[in-house]
Amino acid sequence: MNTLAIDIGSYSIKFFEVIKERKSLKLVHFTEVIIDEVREQMGEDCTLEEIQEEILESYLEEKDAVHEGGFDGKIIFQIPNKLFTTRYLNIPVKQIKKAEQMIPFQLDEELPYSVSDLHFVPSYTKVEEGLDAALYITNLDNFDKYYQNLEQLNLVPAILSTEMSCVQSLIDSSKIGESSFCLIDLGHESTKVYFFCHKKIVSNHISPIGGKLLDENISNTYDIPSDEVSLFKHQNCFFLTENQFEDVDEEQKEFGRLIKVIFWPLVMDLKRWLLGYRISRGNNIEKFYITGGTSRITNIDNFLSQNLGLPVEILKLHDFPGMENLGLTLEQQCSFQMAEIMSFSSFAKPAPINFLSGEYASSFQDNIPLHSTVFISMRTFLFSIFIIVGFLLEWNLLMNEEKSLDRVISGALRKNKALKISKSQRRQYKKWPERTYKLLKRKEIGIKREISVLESAAAKEAISPLVRLSQILPANKKVNLQSFKSKNGSATALFKVSKKGSLKDLETLEKKLNSSTLKNKVLKINKRRQNLNLKFKFD
Question: Which among 397, 399, 429, 401 is positioned nearest to 413, based on CA atoms?
């Protein structure tokens, strides 16, 4: 089974697909989609979340075109950082069941709100005194809204984890020699910092200093266009240590001072967090490891090492067992490191935490089927030898009826595209029909929610612009209305050419809409994706 890791960032979204062969990962496909490039197509008024959703939907649509029934594999991505927090607890028991009973009482002392309002997932480490628990905590209402949105977009992954937990899974499987070290993930909008003691994360921090801040300063100082500054940064930027200032010209000195000023708050944060670690643990760390796209800037490891007073090394994932044969260049490794880590963690033991637990657990997570074997064994044990023949006849009749019913249900699951049942889910039906039942039950709940929303919207005349649009549109089965949104007097509609249509049909529709009486209409055709975006105002 293939695994697709999706690293969702503010600068780009990276897709990294692998398959495990024996004990190593083999790279199937990888690509990066830049947020700003998609923003140019969608419009400046689109939010970051809308652009991210569009990229995810478009990529998986392409997968659908290649794989009948959708991507037949495991998808993993991270919950947004703003939705969760972490807490570290020392629990004086060694049994996990007892620890689970104690956690709510300890959390009541740690958090300013009720435990009943939380959804949390623990990760345990055995220590001499009992258990150390790292808790990944999210507000229940906020998480539920996020989860429902994923369901509506058909984007619920197999594993919804965090960067921190994926990093922990990687380190658990690594052969890093230092007992105490720090990992720094230098991202686009922020920098995440993880302190390890005996290969377990004991504290984590975040700094607002990242590659984006450097981009903005370079763009403003040297008058470089924003769409070119990232490439300029990775090709031309560099850090200078104190002794290197003597060996460069004045222009290089000026640039070295600029980049030092930008990153100095991060250096001070690292020193402060390092002091906190020494006070709480009674020892110092042995080394810093750096990763992330910003770690590609020349000489950043020496700059940090000089100012922190400790060795700094770029994390090389190809040195880790199982990741030797991915075949990425050094530049690609730096850019796709988090996606690589997520891919690796999905196979690792222990596995990363998964927020899709409890009531949010997937209907298709592996478990042991018990229904048929137990049933037959009990019936055989209870019935006497005199009714075995009768039982077998009855069983044969039921099996025939079951096969007939299975054919009807399987046909309905295959032919009814509105259900959005993937190929792998259809295969699950014959072996574990109860799972399909649970899936359809969840879809029923989702449809009822949508009906409720539509009924509510109709009461407020929120669908009147859709009615107005339907009166204008010509009857044409070759162009489909893909999506429609209305809010605060504005409406947006997306039309897409069907399999039987062509770009000419889309252009005909454009002419029709241009000649309509819609207010403040804006039309934009995307010839590559064969869709038409319409925006207009309504009373």
Answer: 429
Q: What is the homologous superfamily of the domain 83-345 according to CATH?
A: ATPase, nucleotide binding domain (3.30.420.40)
441 by Cβ neighbours in 10 Å (0-12 / 13-18 / 19+) ranks as exposed
Among the four given CATH numbers 3.40.50.970, 3.40.50.2000, 3.40.50.620, 3.30.420.40, the one describing domain 2-79: 3.30.420.40
- Which of 371, 374, 376 lies closest to 388 in space, CA to CA? 376
For the entire predicted model, the pTM comes to: 0.64
Helices (H), 295-348: 300-308, 330-335, 337-345
pLDDT digits (tens, 9 = 90+) for 203-250: 999 999 998 999 999 999 988 888 788 888 878 899 999 999 988 999
Count the helix, strand and coil residues of the chain and give each as a percent rounded to the nearest 5. Answer: 50, 25, 25
Q: What is the 3-state secondary structure (H, E, C) of 231-298?
A: HHHHHHCECCCHHHHHHCCHHHHHHHHHHHHHHHHHHHHHHHHHHHHHHHHCCCCCEEEEECHHHHCE
